[in-house]
Here is the input.
Amino acid sequence: MTLQRVVIVGGGHGGFQMAASLRGDGFKGEVLLVGDEPGLPYQRPPLSKAFLKHGDSARLDLRPSAFFEKNEIFLMPQTRVTGIDPESKHITTCSGKEIAYDHLVLATGSRNARPPIANLDLKNVLTLRNLADAADLRSRLTAARHVLVVGGGFIGMEFAAVAPTLSVNATVIEGAERLMARAVSDTMSMHFLKSHQGWGTRIRLGQFVSGLLDDGTGNVAGARLADGSEIAGDIVLIAAGVVPNSELATDAGLAVSDGIDVDDLLRTSNPDISALGDCCNFPDPLSGRRVRLESVQTATDHARTISKRLTGQPASYTAVPWFWSDQGDLKLQIAGLGAGADEHVAHEPEKGGLVVLSFAAGRLVSVETVDSASTHMTARKLFGSGRIVSKPELAAVNYNLVDYARAV
Amino acid sequence: MTRLIFVSPDGNETTVEASAGDSVMQAALSGTVEGIVAECGGAMMCATCHVYVADDWSPKVGMASDDERAMLDFAASEVKPTSRLSCQITITDELDGLTLYLPDAQI
Here is the structure.
C-alpha cells in the first residue's frame, strides 16, 4: 500500500525531522506539518542559552521557508489539533477543519509541569519552553535584579548560568539533595554545584517552594519555602520538569502510560499512527526498559526510524541516547542512560575536565563528560557497536575509554 | 556580504551570500545548501555539518580545534586534513569567495 498523505502533529525538532526525512527517503506523497506555534520550525536548545543573550529569533530557524517550498512540505502553523478520529483517519483542528491522513505521526512534545505551589498566577512567574516564553523572559530580564529558579534541572541550571552574564542574580531552589539528579551522577552534580556557586549563583538544595509572595499589586515578590523561610525575587522561573502532551492520543483511544506507548518500531497501539520524541515512551534498546526521553537526539532519531518504515525499510529503533547541556564555560555531554546504574567511577583526564563512567551490574551504561569530547564520542561509538564493556576491562586501562577503544 | 561557494560531491556549485559573524553552517542552511544536516544546531555535539575547505583557503580558515577534531572522528565520511565542522567557522570579510566541498554523507 502506498501512502498518499502523512500528517505530522507538532512542529518541533522531531516533527521537522519527520518531514525532512520523508523527503530525504524519497517519499512522494503529501507531507503536512501541523504546529500550534507561529512561524517556521526552530531550534529549542538555544532558548535557555545563547538566545537569552542575542535575542535574534531568525537565527533559530531550522531551515528557511525556501526549504519547505523546495521539498513540498506543507506547513500549517498556529494550528492546534483538537482531536483524532482513528476510524475515519482524520484530525480536527481548532478552527473545526478536518484533515484526512493515511499515516499520522504524533510529535506533540511536552509542556512544563505546574508544581503544586500557591500563587503561580502572579505576574512575572514565567516558564521556558518555546520561543514566546524565551522572548518574554528575555524582555523582562532587563528590569530584573533577582530571579528565583524553581528546579535545578538542565533548563533551570542553563538559565542560572546565563543570568550572571546579563547582570541578574539567580537563586536556584531544588527539591532534591543535588542538581540535575534525574540526569547525572552524584559526582557530576557536585561538580556543577561548585561551578555555579563560583559564578555567584545561590543554590538551595532539598528545599521545596510552598508559595509565591505577592508584592500587593499582583507581581511576584519572592518565594516562601516549606521550612518557612522567604527569598525575595522579582522574577520566578518555574523549571520543574515537563509532562508529555499525550491527551490527543488518550482521547483517540491509544495506549498511553508515561507518554504515548510505542513499540520498537515506534508504532502506537493503532497501526496508522506513530509517535516520537518527548511525547512517547519506547523500549530502550540497550536495557529493554521502557523510557521517555526529552532530547533533540531522541526526537530526530525517532523521526528517521519512522521515516524509514513509512518508505518501505522498517527497522527497530536502536540509536544511542546522547544529551548535552552548556552551562557557563562547561560543556556537559552524556552518552547512554545512567538511570539503572549501581556503580560510578569518576576520574579527571590529564587535559582537564571530568569523566564519570556509570555501570549497571558491572556493564558500562552511561558516560558523562565535561570538556572531554573525545571520550564522549568514543562512548557513543562503543554503545552504538553493541559491545558489552565491563568494569574490569576498563579498570585495566585506568578507566581511560579512549585507550580502551583503541585497543579493541 | 561574503560569498561562499559550496561544491556538492557531484560537482554542482551553490553560491550563498553570507553575513560576517554568522557561521558557515548557518549560511549553508539559510541558502538551502543540500548536504548540511546540522543536527545539533551548532553546539558541536555532532559531525553532520562536515565540510572540506578548499586547499588554497585552508590556511586562512585554520585547522579544527582538538574538540572539533574529536567530533570529526565521528563523521560519516572520510576525514581529511582540511575537514572542518562548518558550525565552527565564523564568516569574516576576508573569507569572500571561500570554497567548501561537501562530503558524500553526513549521517
In short: The CA atoms of residues 15 and 74 of chain B lie 28 Å apart. The beta strands of chain B are 2-7, 13-18, 50-53, 83-85, 98-101. The mean pLDDT of chain B is 94. Chain B touches chain A through 19 residues (CB under 8 Å).
